Amino acid sequence: MMTTINGEHLCVSLVPLFNQLSLPDQKRIETMVHHHHYQRREIILSPGDEGKLMIVEAGRLKLYQLSENGDEQVLAVLGTGEYVGEQWLTGPPMKQSLRWLNKTPPFAN
What single DSSP character describes residue 12? Predict the structure, then answer.
């Protein structure tokens, strides 16, 4: 469940890595979060993009890669409260793509 302080959401509270921290520490990390709203089917990250930690505040996100013949191979569909990207923070550029599946829900990274 996402923590709300004075009507403001703390997206980082959805991530197990952060939700065990004290509220002041969560607030400090939340100041580094950028909230985005994406259109349905919008591609958020493409192969070769720099990796980020992506938190799904609400909605669904598809992680996929293209096969050699151009077909989408779905690796995961993430929903509200799920996250992806920790493996990309220190590794090489990603090889997968992320696509937003909902119309215009919030999203944080």
Answer: G
